[in-house]
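User: Last request for today: this protein with adenosine monophosphate, please.
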Amino acid sequence: MSIVVVGSIAFDDLETPTGKRERVLGGAATHFAAASSFFVEGVKMVGVVGHDFAMNDLDFLKERDVDVSQVQINKDGRTFHWKGRYGNDLNEAQTLDTQLNVFATFCPELTEDFQKLPYLFLANIDPVLQRNVLQQMDKPKWIACDTMNFWIEGKRDELLKTIEAVDILLINETEARLLSRERNLVKAAAIIQDMGPSVVVIKRGEYGALLFSCQESVQETFSAPALPLSSVIDPTGAGDSFAGGFLGYLARVGTLDSKSLRQAMICGSVMASFNVEAFGCERMQQLNWADIANRYRQFQQLIHFEIPNF
Ligand code: AMP
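Assistant: Here's the final one, the structure of the complex with adenosine monophosphate:
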């Protein structure tokens, strides 16, 4: 059963310690769709692009069976634009410019086949738009959501209303602290769980990701590492690629049990590890299933240990 994603589709200007690129195809929904398409068929994208966008830029997603029929083209405006810089700390993007452009007035109307899907991912975008899409869905099995400082600081009250209605929140470490107003991540996760989602994933860049889940009153924590890589080219989209692997796997297995959540955390980490190896979606376009399976095994090796005979 497939998944609907709404979120930014963007042109990004990127600056990392390894180089600079302009007008790279990006956006939260784009990175998510690319990664999740390896786990579920027919990922359905909802978003908008402007007159400066060539729809054949999305051909690589169509080839991976992503349904882009609900990506609107607004001829009166320009595509969402984000300009970001990473210094030596690749975990922290510095936003230099955000231009919402066609997203400022975007009002999607989901078709019935989209509304009936069981899984929804509200990728990073205006929380009002996230809620608009959420309200159009016909009783999904679960709803997941991502956000960032731009919205936590700019539209906190709207964001809290969206978060209240979701089952799974994925958020990075700094933003978890900002949202919860708590420095300690264990306490921050508990505060966020009280806001609504029973599953909270805190992404920590090169330090991996933490899962806090409360299913049937059982609280559990899991930690997934990031793969130590000798070359990291561009971290942009790592969080969305993580979400693509994580939620794509959960949609594929159809449960939120402990075993599946843990496996999903590794699927997320695998996809994020590929994403950072090239600018934009370039690495995802080269990827095949054998690469993913091999890297999953690398993760298993990385964290395997025996309990000593004390
Ligand atoms: P991440 O996975 O967090 O690195 O996401 C990076 C992507 O998020 C980039 O491709 C940007 O186009 C997109 N992005 C940046 N700022 C925003 C924003 N305020 N709302 C939605 N998407 C954004």
